Amino acid sequence: MTLRVERISDSGKTVFRVSGRIALEHLVELKAEIAGLGSGTVLDLEHVTLVDIEGVRFLSDCECKGIELVRCSQYIREWIARERES
């Protein structure tokens, strides 16, 4: 499965429901979707099946910019934490 992004407005927030893989080849599309957005933006990662190192770094940068990550799998959370430590 490739990347699928669905945009939803919910209670003043913009939610991006992300499905599939977040890999280097998909980041251009995902970055274009969220360009210029910061706090009040949510990435719902419940249906993300796989990420690569570039995807993890992207997600970490999103959090640093005030973008909330919700329903993120434990392995992705742990990988983000390890990347921040290094």
Verbal overview:
- Helices cover 37% and strands 36% of the residues.
- Strands 1-2-3-4 form a four-stranded mixed beta sheet.
- It has 86 residues and is an alpha/beta fold.
- The chain has helices at residues 27-34, 53-64, 74-85; strands spanning 4-10, 13-22, 41-51, 68-70.
- The chain has a single domain, classed as STAS domain (Transcription Regulator spoIIAA), CATH 3.30.750.
- The chain has three helices and four strands; from the N terminus they run E-E-H-E-H-E-H.
- The radius of gyration is 12 Å and the shape is globular.
Question: Which features characterize this protein?
Answer:
single chain; 86 residues; alpha/beta; Transcription Regulator spoIIAA; 4-stranded mixed sheet; 3 helices; 37% helix
Helix proportion range: 25-40%
CATH class: Alpha Beta
Report the radius of gyration as a whole number of Å.
12 Å
- Distance between the ends: 30 Å
Provide the succession of SSEs: EEHEHEH
| Global shape | globular
